[in-house]
Amino acid sequence: MYTRQNQKNLTSAQKKRFTAAVLELKRNGVYDAFVRTHDTYFVPDRDRKLRVGHMSPSFFPWHRRYLLEFEKQLRTVDPGVCVPYWDWTTDTSPVSSLWADDFLGGTGRDGDRQVMTGPFAHERGGWNVTVGVREARFLTRNLGRPQDPVSLPTPAELRWALGDPVYDVSPWDSTVGGFRNKLEGWAAPRSEHWRNHNKVHQWIGGHMTGGTAPNDPVFWLHHAFVDLIWDRWQQKHPDSGYLPAVPPPLGDFQRGRVIALDEPMPPWDVSPREMSGHQRLYRYE
Predict the structure, then answer these.
(1) What is d(CA 26, CA 276) in angstroms, rounded to the nearest whole number?
(2) CA distance 153 to 90
(3) What is the CATH number of the domain that holds 152?
(4) Which of 231, 215, 218 minimizes the C-alpha distance to 285?
(5) pTM above 0.85, yes or no
(6) What is the pLDDT of residue 25?
(7) Domain coverage including residue 255
(8) Residues 178-203: b if buried by 16+ CB within 10 A, e if exposed
(9) Exposed, middle or buried: residue 7 (CB in 10 Å: 0-12, 13-18, 19+)?
(10) Using CA atoms, how far apart are residues 6 and 86, in angstroms rounded to an integer?
(11) What span, in angstroms and rounded, lies between the C-alpha atoms of 28 and 178?
(12) Nearest-CA neighbor of 226 among 62, 31, 1, 22?
């Protein structure tokens, strides 16, 4: 049992150990394999393929397993390291400690959005972006998107999602309500494009806006908080569970395209039911 901490409470030594372990996974090739996995399972609901990681009910359990696999690799480098979380409803400034030179580095410079500070700056020599690269190999960010401003999710937006007692609803995609879709961020009011999880990706910008989002190490802190929120929702609605409980019926457009409660999620042979609790493995501070 280990504890995932709020990143704002990490000591300088803990920050250094976390970033050093991430850099080692980058050096030995393990990190980029994780980026490729995320990109492979970044399937939009307009596609006719199985959707397991996004725009589908298995968004939460799939990413929980994905984070656990990454954390397991981090802990082979340093057993004292785990993924911290970033509460983006409270740490909302582009100059908060999260973006400091001793942790994740800051926003990208004008022009090419290249991150110039922190251990993941290309000029430091240890962070070459190789997956999904079209042009340069440096990490990019555009915190807050000043040229077309976007804000981070508010506590009210998060409460809006947490207040929905229904996990997900048919047709199990990005078009309707339910907790999963409201937290993933597609089920936003007409006046907005995104909420919650999706809005964070857009606020960070750069590499965080596509299927290869894990190229930016902040991805893991973002999704650790998403995982914590799922846990909060389960505590708030103890009589509500994962849906769909059974696969959609024959003839349903979503049959074979979404994961039911006891079906295996690729690339692992693990079901949403098996990922519905984490208390034996880790806890949140």
Answers:
(1) 30
(2) 9
(3) 1.10.1280.10
(4) 231
(5) yes
(6) 98
(7) 2-284
(8) bbbbbbbbbbbeeeeebbbbbbbbbb
(9) buried
(10) 6
(11) 40
(12) 62
| Cα dihedral value 239, 240, 245, 249, nearest 10 | 120
The segments of the chain whose pLDDT lies below 50 read none
State the pLDDT at residue 48: 86
C-alpha–C-alpha distance, residues 96 and 99, integer Å:
6
CA–CA distance, 270 with 66 (Å, rounded to integer): 11
CB–CB of 85/7 below 8 Å? yes
Residue 265 is predicted with a pLDDT of 97
Which candidate, 241, 186, 190, 206, places its Cα nearest to that of 54?
186
Tokens 């929702």 appear where?
233
Distance CA 184, CA 54 (A): 8
In this predicted structure, what is the pLDDT of residue 99? Answer: 98
Domain count, the chain: 1
Q: Which two tokens stand for residue 206?
A: 């750069």
